[in-house]
Amino acid sequence: MIRLLRSIRHLILGLLAMGCAPAIAQSSLAPCATDAAFTRLPGLDYACIRLRSGGHVLAAQTPDKSKPSVLLVHGLGSNAHRDWRYVYPTLAEQFHLVMLDLPGFGNSAALSGGYSFDGLAKALDEVTERFELTHFHVVGHSLGAAVSLFFADRHPTRVDRLVLIDVAGVLQKQVFARQLLQANRSATLDGVMGLLGQGRGDAWIDLLEDQVDASSQLLAIPAVRNAVLGMPLNADAALGLVEHDFTAAIRNVRAPTTLIWGQNDTVTPLRTGQVLLARMPDARLQIVEGAQHMPAVERPEATSRLLLSALGSPLQPRQVHVRDKTQGDVSCKDQPGATYTGTFDRLSLTNCANARIERAFLKQLVVEGGSVDLVQVAIDADAVALQASNASVMGTGMTIAGDTAVRASNSRVDLAGVSVRARKQAVEMAGSRVYFSVSDIDSPEYRGDAHFRWPPPR
């Protein structure tokens, strides 16, 4: 079991694969001690703040407090607040900036009670109180974006605008694990194959994906977690991302939100941004061309422009797609890469690999073999809405309604940011895997938020 648990380390290290070193252990240093690897940025006034829970965090601000205030929250990795080094000079021309090293990162001590989003959000609360901020904008990246989302949900009256950059950890944990493994096969899957036996292909990802779920309880034990991961600071934070369910926070945050995403992010792909766009009450999505997971480092000029606009300019309203005249029944057979947009009655895909349906209205979708990616699609059926056989279906930002919402046979159905309305049955499946991330279901057998692999947990 320990050998299998060690495979989870590959998943966690994938989050840190962007050249980030682990956070240093603070127990051997004086509070907020300056280390050569964590030099301070020019033009900032630094403070070492003692938290009420114990421990210290390094925080900093720009001198001019007459400007609107912005809290910058960094992501995983050892650079901590220095992740903002290329964009903060431009932002400081218009805003009063506050930044910190999150507990356990850079020159801040780890949380004494272990990592939790509640503990990290309390650290933000205490830092902003120390700097006498009442209302302010919040900008977060990766882990910091997840913490910022949590903070905005907890403190709705304090956050004016919210900017989330390449948010990590939104998708259901097994879905998140799978996409990370697929994006980093050479660094992760190949290393795990030797632990699991002989073979190739997606079956190995399925097996490792199951280990993510089966090992959760053991990994909750600190001694086991530290023995398996060997990097308690960054790894604990990454595990928190995988385990936390943001469904309610995403639905509840009312602050005007701008989502900024690296076009080529493989750690938290653009799909996560599309989920947030679909589920947050007041959101818009901006893409940084050519960037991966760290736009503020990889494309600082473009990111600075987007940040200035998101924080200081009128925000564009959400786009609304209007149903047009139906194209009737449409079929695809043995045609890879087919794409569809618009209104259809019955859309049938037979052995059509890598098909894509986007901004569409359907009365029924039938997928036999092949694979399809659905984005901003509404299916409203009299009987079965989505029927999949020997197929792979990924749906993002959808609504699905019918007597039976999903019928799956020997298929994988991955639904994120989806609302399901079923008069008789939400999911009917045989030999299939059906996943829900940040979704909701209204059906006779289940009503409520859906962030799990079907069937619902009891």
Automatic annotation (TrEMBL):
One Gene Ontology cellular component: membrane
GO molecular function: monoacylglycerol lipase activity
Entries under SUPFAM superfamilies matching the protein: alpha/beta-Hydrolases
InterPro entries: AB_hydrolase_1, AB_hydrolase_fold, AB_hydrolase_sf
Superkingdom classification of source: Bacteria
GO-annotated biological processes: acylglycerol catabolic process
Record key words, sorted: Signal
Signal peptide: 1-25
PANTHER family registered for this protein in UniProt: HYDROLASE, PUTATIVE (AFU_ORTHOLOGUE AFUA_2G14860)-RELATED, MONOACYLGLYCEROL LIPASE
Name this protein carries in UniProt: Pimeloyl-ACP methyl ester carboxylesterase
